[in-house]
């Protein structure tokens, strides 16, 4: 791998894929260790592969109960895989995006410190250190808060802090795994735990460049004002707009259904949490299959969009969605170029967004068609599972453990492709991304 | 309308919408006449509106049984509306596309004979005459063949030729209405009737410019060779590729299901006819709800794409689909421009295709979400109905007559938007399409 990076014989897309293949194989080895599982647990190789891909891609779909399957050392191994998967995703995502020349701003350019005299590797190491620091800091604070709070939930302090640590890591990496045995359903009435979780999963899913810019903003407030990059503005607005949209739609659609017998604050938190979790968290405070079909379709749509790029999340990404919306808007206004926040979006980013979206739709549709043949579940359950796997969200209407072998293989493939990015998948067969000639100055966006 | 066309105060999009609104109102009046319906028939105003929109948009979805509701004069009134709808669609589609400067080739430029000295109106009249001649000729030949053949199906020659005429008009205009009471199911074993129907609906759905070019090709064979326009090549290849794709997929998906007890030639014709009919015909030789879900999803996809532009059909159109496929292909090859048949596809056409596709997906999804709340049918039945209405195909799993009022209004809106074109709908609010500056020479396509 070092040799590859130095001599650069592989394209960025190929390195990403190679990274994930190696990571998945290592995870399979770790999960196959006897100490990982509780005594008496006997899971199939396919289930181990499924769990490995789900963990590395921080999706959170599970074919086995995490709490019943994993021993205490196994739980730490799983935590390590989630951590590695989450940070790997963020690092590689940011790194290759910077590497292929798509700077988001002057500040970010120094992030990987690559100039003619430095190898890509030192840039990668430097970047990973930064990301690791930020993520571990967030998780540490999260674990302390949750662990301390959990002292009145669990009998021993060890269990409280183990639960707190697992919850913080799972939320920050948007992994969606749980060791409660039933996601966050036990905390359905505990708005404090929910708010902490929403904050952690938002920090993980909003994109690393945003975190850096906000950090810089806080550090040097006076100088920074108004200098957020187009990327940060667009992705953050989209991120929170989708959260708000989801909350409102769920509230409306379920008013006379799931929320019929709930108080306003219960309804609000159910809607708010389930909307937020589709950004990529994958945790849930309820059994989502209790929602009615219009709501479930909306959740599919939200999961399909997913998180921001250069984050721990999947899906077509918030920027891609924003560019598509702006494209439609500009076109209907008869404009040839997309202008937003006094900037123009680059032609290549538009094209990339469009291709990513269409490929994602093709992939989604193909997977749904295959599963409607291989499985006996309802169309809604299948569409939900496919959206969740592609978006690496990890929500499920409960069919994951009962999937057929073909079904599991399809979901594994979706999580894998959803993770490496659909364009990386397309570009595997190219030696390197072809260079593009820029014809006019524009500010670049991350897409897909 | 004459004044509008001469003085040009309305945009093409506004004229198209105005035309359809007037046409629908006139159709409602005609259908409300006492002589239209059989004695004792009492249908609601919403059902009349539904039938009027379905007929003018030549969709063919029906909330009432055509054979039970319509008297013999009523049948002729319906035929007239279908004819008017089909020809109006083809004329307006071709006319405005030529008018906004999108010539398909040297030959076609003379079609509307508009130069600085002539008004648009004379071009429109000239074009409509040509289209009328071609369509009536096709229908006449079709009616003679089918009517004569029907002599051994029906007791009297009058009924045989009435059935033949209705079948020929319904097939050529891709209207999908039937006066057999059960579409083409009575002819499920009659491959001759099916082949004639497939030919007629293909001639209606393949696009008027293609018909003209083929006519010219036949007339002056030696001179014309190899000079088909990019539009004709692309649209025709896509059209027949989709037909073949659908046939193969249906054969594979239903091999162990609907076709389990059928002979190879029965299976082939069921697959071939049902695939062809999704191009826009809307007739069926079987109850499509007998297909399994993977097949039904594939039919949804095919109906969503629909027919070629400047034809009697709807959907996002074959060219739009072809451009999207070529865009993905070019992008994955790292190419900046789409090159096909030694031509480059214009940037504006690509953008238009993309916007049309996304808007269509948004519309489709929104309609499905609304219907899953307003109706009690399965998700599959609703998705099928919505795809059929948007594509103005007219196939149904049988839920149309049982739709709620909200459901009917949604389906009416879809048929209307599917017909006027999703971009016309967007452009209603503009005075006229803004001019575009061309930067490099390319050959133009019709999209959406
Ligand atoms: K997740
Ligand atoms: K039709």
From TrEMBL, chains A, B:
MF GO annotations: monoatomic cation transmembrane transporter activity
Lineage: Bacteria, Bacillati, Bacillota, Bacilli, Bacillales
Domain of life, per lineage: Bacteria
The keyword Ion transport belongs to this UniProt entry's keyword annotation: yes
Keyword Membrane among UniProt keywords: yes
InterPro entries: Cat_transpt
GO biological-process terms attached to the record: metal ion transport
Transmembrane segments: 12-33, 45-64, 76-100, 131-154, 160-179, 191-212, 232-253, 314-332, 353-371, 409-429
Coiled coil segments of this chain: none
Subcellular location: Cell membrane
Protein name as it appears in the record: TrkH family potassium uptake protein
A single GO cellular-component term on record: plasma membrane
Swiss-Prot/TrEMBL keywords: Cell membrane, Ion transport, Membrane, Transmembrane, Transmembrane helix, Transport
Lipid bilayer topology: Multi-pass membrane protein
